[in-house]
Amino acid sequence: MRTVMDLQWWITVIGVPLVGALFWLRFHDRNETDAALRALKDELANYKLLVATSFVTATSMKELEGRIMSHLDKIEKKIDRVIEQKHPPA
Length: 90
Prior knowledge:
By secondary structure, this protein is an all-alpha fold.
């Protein structure tokens, strides 16, 4: 009989508060995790916005490439003219 009462005492005094504390920690930890995930989501959204606003689009890169190539063609033609002037065809 004494063993059953000791077990009930341990359950009442130690077990119930311990289980309560574990539940409290579980839900308290979940709130912190949810808050951290929300903050991470916000940071990712801000980074995506930064990337979208600061990086070059494909069309503007094509335009830039076209301008560079046309200038290189002009330089090449000038170099060809200079070489032809110094060494005229025979």
